Amino acid sequence: MHVSKTLKNRSKMELSVDEEDGTFTNISLADDSEHLTGRLSSKEERAHSAMMNADMDAVEAENQVELEEKTRLINQVLELQHTLEDLSARVDAVKEENLKLKSENQVLGQYIENLMSASSVFQTTDTKSKRK
User: Fold this and answer.
1) How far is it, in rounded angstroms, from Cα 89 to Cα 36?
2) CA 98 to CA 128: how far, in whole Å?
3) Using alpha carbons only, what angle is made at residue 47 by residues 43 and 48, rounded to the nearest 5 degrees?
């Protein structure tokens, strides 16, 4: 159960004090017409404006940092894409060279085999035994 006392001073400020824990639960400034109308004095407006500007500057600085980070990441991704393209082109060139060399090796292998079969030095002993 909340029991409150209301205290009033000369400036018509009301404070409601909670009896159970001694905390203030309601503060009313009855004679503060600027507060009631929602208008701020020029000093308060400047302070509020400065706070808003500081908040906006902080947000703008944070956005600038995020933009720089995004730009750095985009550049890094582009660089990696170019590296991948270069590596892919190099792999394709190596594959082509490998196929060309395999083909040349087959031609040379066949040529050597033909030379060996045509030469009597490289004929097998089976053919010599057939002559006898």
Assistant:
1) 74
2) 40
3) 115
Q: How many CA atoms lie within 13 A of 14 on its CB side?
A: 9
Tokens of 111: 């040529």
Top mean-pLDDT range of 32-46, 91-105, 110-124: 91-105
User: Which tens digits make up the pLDDT trace of 106-131?
Assistant: 999 999 999 988 887 777 655 555 55
Q: What was the pLDDT predicted at 106? A: 97
Whole-angstrom Cα distance, residue 38 to residue 26? 18
> Residue 49 phi/psi, 5° resolution?
-65, -40
* Per-position DSSP letters for 44-111, written without gaps between them: HHHHHHHHHHHHHHHHHHHHHHHHHHHHHHHHHHHHHHHHHHHHHHHHHHHHHHHHHHHHHHHHHHHH
Indicate the SS3 state at residue 119. coil
The pair of structure tokens assigned to 91 is: 């792999």
Provide the whole-model pTM. Answer: 0.43
Order of strands across the sheet with 24-29?
A: 4-8, 13-18, 24-29
**31: helix, coil or strand?**
coil
